[in-house]
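For consistency, the fold was encoded as tokens, which produced the following:
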Amino acid sequence: SSGINAEWPLRPGSHAIHSLTVEDLKMYFNKRAGANNNIPVVNPMLRDQPRVLDNAPSSGYDEEFKTDGMKHFDLIMKGVNMEGWRLTAFEVLERLSHVYHMSEIWVAAGQKYKKVAKRLNKVSELCDCVRDIDSNGLAKYLQLTAFQIRYPGITSGNKNITDAYLGGFLDYHISYGLQERPKNLVDELMNFDFSGTDEELIRGVVENLMDEAGFDEEPHDPWEEAAHSREHWEWCVGELKKLLTPELIYDTAVFIHCQLDLED
């Protein structure tokens, strides 16, 4: 089938593209990607506006490094102490595992992209539907993803967290899970107005977009984590692999092909 899953623009799609950069687009999809690439992503500067950028930004990889892994590692380590940059609620290992996990999605989607680009006309009904991100839900889910990254636990329904945000404390350090979002959130989300500042919208997000997303509110215990690190990592790997479905990879490739603007 040449179509895509109608639910891709929602949770799976927003996750697959939310942290792409110009360099990633060039590396994994098309070397002709540039600054005006038309791929919407969450703003990596988490205290800045807008929450969602119209174009994936440049990340500033050190091109003297030859491997993708070292470029990513270098970028994460440079940003560890930058206030409000990328996944501020994550420990270093979590940040690294995130960027490597996203790379797994992009490598697979990039391989599929080359096949899709050969047989799918960008001037087509399918691409028209894919590009209509306001109607298909992708724009809304990217906004929600931005809030969940900026304020982990904001949609969890846990009052210890949400009351702190409502009180003006905006720097919680917790990790949240990878659960699929409940279907009943979709209607609320599609009707939610994200115009406004974070401070203006926090109460509305807390009260109307609760999805009970999992998170870990407990303080990290390095000794305890070390004692069970292998078992915990095996669980994490299982959760990450669940996300790497053939449908996600194909649908992401179709979206990038339809949406990506290339330089001459």
